[in-house]
Structures are given as structure tokens and as C-alpha cells.
Predict the 3D structure of the following.
Amino acid sequence: MTTERLRIREMCDAYDVTPRTLRFYEAKELIFPDREGQRRLYTKRDQARLKLILRGKRFGFALEEIRQLLDLYHMDDEQETQLSKTYVLAEKYLAQMEAQKAELEEAIGELKVQMEWGAAKLAKLSKEKTEAT
């Protein structure tokens, strides 16, 4: 395995995040870059953790939940605990996302109906206005 370490700018470019985001995750003790003077150097471990953090955030996981899951990685159970807890959280968030999706689909349907009514009403008013002149 390579020991390639990325500088903050390289890390930002590679993962489409800002330096502020990386410093925030570091302050929250989610990533632990090496320090050489003022320079931060991100290891493969940091890169893997950042991928998981970003994926978790995209799925709606809270940072504290992500931290707890990341902290389970080094248990000596071949990640069984980490995977099972991640699965339980994923089920919870999937159910929430599916409920939100259903609500959005219903709202979209209602909005389309209202827009069709509005378009028909505008067409009728325009026609009446044209006939009146």
C-alpha cells in the first residue's frame, strides 16, 4: 500500500471540498492529518475517512453518527459491529428518504395540476381578451 500523503489543496481538489471543511472535520476529530510545521498532510486513512464522511453526509447521517461508525473500524471483529450499526442507521435514513420522496411526488403532482389549471385559465382569458378587441 502506498503511503502517498496529500496536501490540503490536493485533498480539496480530489474530494471537491474546501480547506475550511477539512479543518472543520479535523477539529471534530473525524480526520487526523499528519503535521509538518504548518502543513497538513492527509494519509490514505484520512482520504478513506473523508470519503465515508462525505457519503454519510450525503445520506443524511449526523456527524456524531458518522464519528461513532468510524470509531468502530478498529474493533477486532472484522468490522462486523461497524457494518451492523451502519446497516441499522442506513435503514432508518432510507425510510426517511423514501417518505420524503413520496411527499415530494405528491406535491409535484398537485403542483402540475394547479399549473395545468392556471395555463388553461390564462389561455381562456387571453382568448376572451382577443375576441373582445
